[in-house]
Task: inverse folding
């Protein structure tokens, strides 16, 4: 028989190798493993959503973003929180689906800070279009030893008119610039389920082998092409964009500028799917600010910063159009920033429209 067919190089094997190389310690590897378990569970839930009547709205009303929570949003958030709690290495979590950061009591050590969007693009779920989870891991910026108890999102945590000191410490720990990230990754739930991960030394892709339930290394040190003739923007917002963005978009579609062959448009309305294609094929994904939302729609902490860390580790860029995303010091957990991300030359071309 073909021996190599059974020599799977799994995420677990890769994590052990990275520990041997001293790139990460066992505590951080434990957190990454717990996240991979969450992604496997979400992949199963998403794959069966139509069958187990998990599509549609949760009936829990709107989340902090004013978006109708889908059943799978709530389930995916619970899955992430449970896995991270059970890892015993997580100090604080911040999720798109939680109003405030949550201090995790069951932390034995490590005390890592984990930020995540458990199911991004979930409005696409009912149509079976790709969705994904996005995550980032930080060291605590201040001691979390003094933090205990678990905040229910509804709990005001206001003590004598001031934010409870512990919650304030949680927020301080969570609101770190992306350049502090130790780990960033996403899991794409699509025709195949692929986890893409960086621990600060290149970008690796692991595809879920449904037969053994393991993430298997399939993309070794991904490099985003330096240029790419694909743009991924919601052009429905064109009328609300500022002049530099309009001029940029007009230029991409001008055949005369590109030897007769303008750029192609690809937009599925799901950041993880659009970004994954951009990372592998090259090009640019953009969600600019507009007249209605000057900072655009995407969240800095658990969408733009982790994706920008991955892009930079793959030789690309993540920018607001005016500044490097990873340099931005968050001022609040759910703040939004404009995002231009992908091939270095393509992001620089967008930025040039603000410089001239
Ligand atoms: P629009 C999904 O809601 C999301 O956060 C991203 O996944 C996606 O890229 C973007 O918003 C789509 O937003 O305004 O184009 O529908």
Result:
């Amino acid at each position: 028989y073909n021996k190599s067919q059974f020599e799977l190089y799994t995420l677990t094997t890769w994590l052990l190798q990275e520990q041997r190389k001293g790139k990460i310690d066992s505590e951080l590897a434990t957190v990454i493993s717990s996240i991979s378990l969450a992604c496997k569970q979400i992949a199963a839930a998403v794959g069966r959503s139509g069958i187990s009547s998990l599509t549609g709205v949760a009936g829990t009303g709107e989340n902090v973003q004013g978006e109708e929570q889908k059943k799978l949003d709530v389930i995916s958030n619970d899955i992430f929180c449970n896995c991270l709690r059970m890892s015993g290495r997580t100090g604080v979590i911040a999720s798109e689906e939680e109003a405030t950061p949550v201090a995790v009591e069951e932390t034995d050590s490590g005390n890592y800070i984990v930020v995540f969007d458990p199911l991004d693009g979930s409005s696409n779920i009912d149509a079976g279009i790709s969705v994904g989870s996005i995550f980032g891991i930080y060291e605590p910026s201040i001691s979390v030893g003094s933090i205990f108890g678990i905040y229910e999102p509804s709990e005001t945590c206001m003590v004598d008119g001031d934010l409870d000191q512990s919650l304030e410490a949680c927020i301080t720990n969570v609101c770190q610039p992306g350049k502090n990230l130790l780990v960033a990754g996403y899991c794409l739930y699509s025709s195949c389920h692929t986890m893409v991960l960086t621990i600060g030394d290149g970008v690796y892709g692991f595809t879920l082998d449904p037969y053994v339930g393991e993430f298997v290394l399939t993309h070794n040190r991904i490099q985003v092409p330096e240029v790419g003739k694909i743009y991924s923007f919601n052009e429905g917002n064109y009328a609300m964009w500022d002049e530099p963005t309009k001029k940029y978009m007009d230029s991409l579609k001008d055949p005369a500028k590109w030897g007769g062959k303008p750029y192609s448009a690809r937009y599925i309305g799901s950041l993880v799917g659009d970004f994954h294609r951009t990372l592998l094929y090259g090009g640019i994904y953009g969600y600019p600010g507009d007249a209605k939302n000057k900072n655009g729609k995407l969240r800095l902490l658990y969408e733009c910063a982790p994706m920008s860390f991955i892009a930079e580790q793959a030789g690309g860029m993540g920018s607001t159009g005016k500044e490097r995303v990873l340099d931005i010091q968050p001022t609040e957990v759910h703040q939004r920033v404009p995002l231009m991300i992908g091939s270095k030359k393509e992001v620089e071309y967008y930025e040039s429209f603000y410089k001239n």
